[in-house]
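User: Structure please.
Assistant: Input sequence and predicted structure:
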Amino acid sequence: MSLTKPVVGQWYRGANNDLFEVVAIDEGDSTIEIQYFDGSVTEIDFDAWNEQLLEGQIDDAEAPEDWSGSVDVGAEDLDREIEDLVQPPWSGPAERALRR
């Protein structure tokens, strides 16, 4: 693999066959923040990234089928409201007739 800059949102496979995603790049500090599929986050510098590329320890990878990994996503994180699916109680005469 040629020396390429990491891309935020791109998935890679590391030396131990671990899947990880680049989640942030800090040009000022020359660091790359990566998050492994299990949810752990670490930071490496550009020199370490390039060294691992030269040694063939980093390869492009497809995003896993279940890309969320260990991420807990709740309804409040989806930026939308989930409607309550509870049915209203039987209240009118027509509904009471149907219950019988």
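The longest strand covers residues 19-26.
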